[in-house]
Design goal:
By secondary structure, the protein is an alpha+beta fold. It has 9 helices and 20 strands. The strands form 4 sheets. The protein has an 8-stranded mixed beta sheet, with helices on both faces. Strands 9-2-1-13-20-19 form a 6-stranded mixed beta sheet. Strands 3-8-4 form a 3-stranded antiparallel beta sheet. The C terminus is likely disordered. The structure holds flavin-adenine dinucleotide. Flavin-adenine dinucleotide (FAD) binds next to helix 1, strand 2, helix 2, strand 14 and strand 18.
Length: 391
């Protein structure tokens, strides 16, 4: 039998976009929530994320629908959570110049519109109206417009989610007080979370939202190998990416999310642009000089694509690591072998956090499984060889 929600204690590990979203929902539902992070909130992957809210190229169909629901969930939440500070429904323009790129873009737009996802091809004049900073594209360029897509400013967002949780009684512990060093559950006893500061927190529910660090926490709980992520610290791993911030930009700088061959960009607070590229060969072992060189290269590519960067230089760069489930889709639910530990780890966590957290909180509060989360349970990996990532 599920006890009244007000009497139930929940420890959420990890105060990134996912953990903060779940903590806010559980606290709003009346649970007694403690949110732990080894760092300041939002300093993990969420901090440097491109944070583009989209379901632009997500398959299969049900995963597309999950991400599409993510777009709507942020749009719904924004008015109630000071969205002006973090929600940027800017839309996204995508350019393709090669024959293969144009064919793929046209097919994708066709597929997405068939799935009820707003997308259309636009001519050069309309593209220039949508994004006046775009340099005139060549005659062979195809451009698509995705008006419902957005980007989020994760730091002010996470601040607000945590403030919302705290206003409903949640406690945030950070640093050594928040760093989890032990997890166990003896039969018939409440699970216990041990911290580096020596505290032992008993809980009715333990929810692990530790992003790329989740496999380590699963191992602490006695369930190693149950959360297969792409090995992010290996040489040549596809999980790390170089993120670059450049500025100052002139008033004529881009206002949309923009994807062009070789460069992705969007505005960032402080008069900056955030850049990323699909093909930057970096990992956690790339030497500093090479990172600096690659950052400069991204600025050059951006300057060739948009106006407004004439005075810009590289202001910051960072190798940021995606939590990439081995089969690329979210891992959400109780761990086989340690069912008392509920995990939530996903790529596209910025897109998905508002929607996933709603379902996760509903499961934890009601005790009943969410049908929408059924395809994403950790037990899909049990007894099988981990599937290789597709792309
Ligand atoms: C370059 C890049 C671009 C991306 N672009 C997009 C995008 O455009 N759109 C999108 O939707 N997604 C994007 N993503 C993915 C998205 O950013 C992540 O899925 C999301 O940020 C994950 O959030 P999280 O809360 O799960 O993890 P994190 O933000 O990493 O938070 C995990 C937290 O757990 C804490 N923690 C870890 N271990 C412990 C411990 N032992 N004790 C206590 N705390 C602990 C960490 O300190 C951290 O704060 C991108 C990722 C990268 C790297």
């Amino acid at each position: 039998m599920v006890r009244p929600v007000q009497t139930r204690r929940c420890v959420v590990i990890g105060a990134g976009v996912l953990g903060a979203s779940i903590a806010a929902r559980l606290a709003a539902a009346g649970m007694n929530v403690t949110l732990l992070d080894q760092d300041e909130p939002g300093r993990g992957t969420s901090r440097w994320s491109f944070a583009w809210v989209n379901s632009n190229d997500k398959g299969p169909r049900r995963y597309h629908d999950l991400n599409h629901a993510g777009l709507r969930a942020w749009a719904q939440l924004a008015p109630a959570l000071d969205g002006a500070a973090w929600y940027r429904p800017a839309g996204n323009l995508e350019l393709a110049t090669s024959a293969a790129g144009r064919a793929e873009l046209a097919m994708r737009v066709c597929r997405l519109t068939g799935w009820g996802y707003p997308a259309r091809l636009v001519d050069a004049a309309e593209a220039a109206e949508i994004e006046p900073a775009l340099r005139p594209p060549g005659p062979d360029t195809m451009t698509a417009w995705f008006p419902d897509e957005a980007y989020l400013l994760t730091e002010p967002l996470i601040e607000r989610l945590i403030a919302r949780a705290a206003a409903r009684g949640a406690t945030l512990l950070t640093g050594e007080q928040g760093r989890v060093t032990g997890l166990d559950a003896a039969p018939g006893r409440a699970p216990r979370v041990r911290t580096a500061a020596g505290a032992v927190l008993a809980a009715d529910e333990v929810v692990c939202c530790a992003g790329r660090w989740t496999p380590g926490l699963a191992a602490l709980a006695g369930a190693p190998g149950t959360v297969p992520l792409v090995a992010w610290d290996a040489h040549g791993s596809p999980a790390p990416a170089l993120v670059v911030r450049v500025g100052p930009v002139t008033p004529a700088a881009p206002v949309r999310v923009l994807h062009a061959p070789g460069i992705f960009l969007r505005p960032h607070p402080g008069g900056l642009l955030q850049l990323e590229a699909p093909d930057t060969p970096v990992d956690l072992h790339t030497p500093e000089a090479e990172l600096r060189h690659q950052a400069g290269e991204l600025l050059r590519r951006a300057s060739r694509t948009v106006r407004g960067l004439e005075e810009a230089r590289v202001v910051a760069y960072q190798v940021c690591v995606r939590p990439l489930p081995a089969d690329e889709v979210s891992i959400v639910g109780r761990l086989p072998g340690a069912e008392w530990l509920y995990v939530a780890v996903t790529h596209s966590g910025v897109t998905l956090a508002a929607h996933l957290s709603r379902h996760i909180a509903a499961e934890l509060v009601s005790g009943g499984p969410s049908a929408e989360l059924a395809p994403y349970r950790p037990d899909r990996f049990a007894g099988t060889n981990t599937p290789a990532p597709g792309r």
